Description:
This protein is an alpha/beta fold.
Amino acid sequence: MLLTDANMPGTNGFMLVEQARQEVDLRQTAIMMLTSAGQRGEGAWCRELGIAAYLIKPVSQSELLDAILRVLATKAQSADDSRLVTRHSLREARRSLRVLLAEDNAVNQKLASRLLEKQGHTVVVTSNGREAVEALGRQGFDLVMMDVQMPEMDGFEATAAIRRRENGTGVHVPIIAMTAHAMAGDRERCLAAGMDAYVSKPIQAKDLFEAVESSMAPAESLV
Length: 223
């Protein structure tokens, strides 16, 4: 993959791509173009040069990861798809998830739910780990947001129960841990307990969205 900025002194990004396409070893390279300000006609120019993605800066980590995975997946499948990956196409293609939120604090419930619903996801709220385990037994979810400290059954116990139920089934529901106390070793402890990602509270939208993106990305696409 070649990732280049469009606006550079001397040889700009489009000139660089034109030169790269003349090199035999680079003709099939997947190319992503970043620009500070999109100009009329640049989308058509990207298609003509075989550029796979065209993103306007600033680009978030989650957008960049999503674009890279989409471009590489298309290339790996040798798909005959000339559609240019843009911020708009990424938003259109973003999968709507069914999210189970296990959180005992009413304020955090509302905040996390609102952020996830703004991204187009459906959220079901439970107040403790036991309710979360029972909810997963009744219906399927794409993702679990799991508070670590909850009454009756905490996040670690609930995660262990979920992973035991999944054992031998081939099913693995991504679980994102949430904790109010960001301490050294917390992330490692959560991952060791069978969770897939970790965010600290108070919840920040950027951290939450990036955790969701990384948890839902196919593992083989990240190698």
